[in-house]
Amino acid sequence: MKNFVIQLSKKAGKEIVKKFNKDQIVKVKSKSQIVTEADLIANKIIVNAIKKKFPTHAILSEETGRNKIKSEYLWVIDPLDGTTNYSIGSPLFAVSIALFKGNNPILGISYAPIMNELYFAEQSKGVFLNNKKIKVSNKKTLKESFFTYCHGSTDKDIKKAVKIYNKIKLSGHDSRQLGAAALELGFVAAGRTECIIIPGANSWDVGAGVLFVREAGGVVTDFSGKPWNLKTKDMVASNGKIHNQLIKFIKNV
Q1: Tens of pLDDT along 68-98?
Q2: Which CATH number applies to 142-251: 3.40.1080.10, 3.50.50.60, 3.40.190.80, 3.40.50.2300?
Q3: Is residue 81 a contact partner of residue 95, using CB atoms and an 8 Å limit?
Q4: I need a surface site. Which of 24, 181, 199, 237 has the fewest CB within 10 A?
Q5: How far apart are CA 178 and CA 42, in angstroms?
């Protein structure tokens, strides 16, 4: 399984890179979501390979939706997370693939081909960045923490994200919107940042990353503090040490 998803993500990443700084937007899904030819090419590579190797498994992809197969196993795919970054020449984009059993991820991979960074995790086996085991940071207060944030495409999600960002900045905390949730969750897992807050989190954007953070010793919940699962909409992931503080912070926004 491990070799299969690693080779698959690298194959899709290789095709994406071929069109980097050359690709054209195929369509605009919403004011904050676009689709490029690379999204569609990578999606076809990944979905076809999974269908061939695991014909009885369900598949959910950002680009082609969910198939009609009923199974306890569900592949959740974002063939190109960070499409807007990709379209403007930013290297912050990745191929993201997760395998769920029920509502929780049991395997995840995110591959950022330009940066040559590959995150991989299996449930109860840890998370690795380029084959080196990683863990969350030891920071224990919001004051010393670095925030990132993202949001879904609805007006409600965007307005909530703006309020959160405003609260973060006026409280004197540093924050960035990096535009690729799969990688931002990897950053939390690797101890590069302490948390990410996402109103309206899409499962294909965060599925693999949720497992990264959990396997690195962090915590992932909804905004009320309940454990994240496939049906959760709003998401907050942290190193765990600041999580209760973070939930209180969000409730006050």
Answers
A1: 899 999 999 999 999 999 999 999 999 999 9
A2: 3.40.190.80
A3: yes
A4: 24
A5: 22
